[in-house]
Amino acid sequence: MVIGGTLFQHRNIHKTTWSLPSGATKSQIDHILINRKWRSSLQDVKPYRGADVTSDHNLLVAVVSLKLRRAQRGQQRGHQFDSSKLGDDWIRQAFRRELKNRFQILGEEQEMNIKSINQAFKEAGEKVLGFKKKKREEWIQGETWEKIETRRGVKQRMNSTRSHCVHDQLRRKYSKTGPCSKKNDQTRQENLCRETGG
């Protein structure tokens, strides 16, 4: 194993991964380990001081360059048919007719095997039922996004200031804005879980 943070030369400010809340003590205690086999793919490692995390540790970012193989065709996951439409009598009858017609064509042209039966079901499903549309729930409310943006602005000002007094004021403001946005989203997520029965 190779310690990634010690391989690259950076200024001291770009090596610090942890600091006391007062800012008096700073240290490089967080590291990224990589297997020697992948050492040449590691391009750079440095802490990201502007990351908006409620911690005295800075986010450690590694730049890795990999050559990936091209994905084989046919490995993509297929779409799901909208089987809820089969509850409607008219659509159910249309699906049966379409399937019956496809099986008649199959019987006349070639012998039936599992592959041809699956293909008949797939084509009939595409034509009559269509695919399910993904329904996405917004997990973070607009109010929370606003708090995140103000918090991010405070973090940027905190990192760019040179005055210890201003830094302490901003640090207190930063720590006060943190937990309330988490609480709002946690209660919203709990309500969603209750609604869905989870």
Describe this structure in words.
- The chain has 198 residues and is mainly alpha-helical.
- It folds into 3 domains: 2-64, no CATH class; 83-129, no CATH class; 142-196.
- 45% of the residues lie in helices and 11% in strands.
- It is built from 4 helices and 6 strands.
- The protein has helices spanning 89-109, 114-129, 142-160, 164-196; strands at 2-3, 18-19, 26-27, 33-34, 42-48, 59-64.
- The chain has a two-stranded antiparallel sheet with strand order 1-4. Strands 2-3 form a two-stranded antiparallel sheet. A two-stranded antiparallel sheet has the order 5-6.
- Strand 2 and strand 3 (26-27) form a beta hairpin.
- Helix 1 packs antiparallel against helix 2 and helix 3 runs antiparallel to helix 4.
- The longest helix has 33 residues, at 164-196.
- It starts with a strand and ends with a helix.
- The model has no long low-confidence stretch (mean pLDDT 78).
Give the SSE layout.
Blueprint: E1 2-3, E2 18-19, E3 26-27, E4 33-34, E5 42-48, E6 59-64, H1 89-109, H2 114-129, H3 142-160, H4 164-196
Antiparallel strand pairs: 1-4, 2-3, 5-6
Q: What is the structure about, briefly put?
A:
The protein is about 45% helix and about 10% strand.
